[in-house]
Amino acid sequence: PMPTPPEKPIVLEGLQIGDNVYDYFYSMEQSRWIPWMETIPTFDVPRSSRYEEIVVPSVDSVRLVYAFQLLITNDKHVLCPGPTGTGKSVNISMWLQKQAPDHFQGTFVNFSAQTGVNQFQDLIDGKLEKRRRGVYGPPAGKKMVLFVDDLNMPQKEYYGAQPPIELLRQWHDHGGWYNRKELKKFEITDVIMASAMGPPGGGRTFVTERLKRHYNVVAYSDFQDSSINQMFKTICDYFFSSFDESVRELISPMITST
Known about the structure:
Elements: E1 24-27, E2 32-35, H1 59-72, E3 78-81, H2 88-99, E4 104-110, H3 117-125, E5 129-132, E6 135-137, E7 143-149, H4 163-174, E8 176-179, E9 184-188, E10 191-197, H5 209-212, E11 216-217, H6 225-239, H7 245-248, H8 251-256
Parallel strand pairs: 3-10, 3-11, 4-7, 6-9, 7-10
Antiparallel strand pairs: 1-2, 5-6, 8-9
């Protein structure tokens, strides 16, 4: 039988006709849709900040960080691909350093074309403690979030594999890797993987599907014009705050003209 239509029209509280639903967050407490920017405190540029240190939140970054933290805090691995300059590394690093729960321990690794698998394994092993025989992990009561930036940078070897990536895949598939001295496998527990990478090309390569299948993908795209305008307006308002009103009136026209 055909479903009966609702007696009353569905009211999307907080949404206007023509709005993009992805620009809004549904608040269970308020039972309405609210813009993403209203879910965070008002951003003010910290005093005496240098230009390169300012990170202005935007609709794009707020909703992507929300999706990222929702996955990570539920022990899901996350991969963030996207063009350079979209804030992938900055957003993840800032969340891990400032907003992550206390029992989360961030470990940061930058891959390059010269990254070797032994060097990478030794770096991770140095941050793990022995839990019991054959089982290693972060300090008791902690969870390690291993953030690998530029995941697709390591050079491919003769057979087309990328050894540092194969080590990560081995952990995902088998829950650990081998001690190279004793040639014994040990289990690694309480680790959550987060990674970021740019599109293939210019030294970056395609990553094997055998690794990618383990991740939840939160993809970044180029900023919307409204986000770019809002970021530059925030920065310009800060730097021109001591100028005469006649100068500050030119901020908006200056931004829209570039």
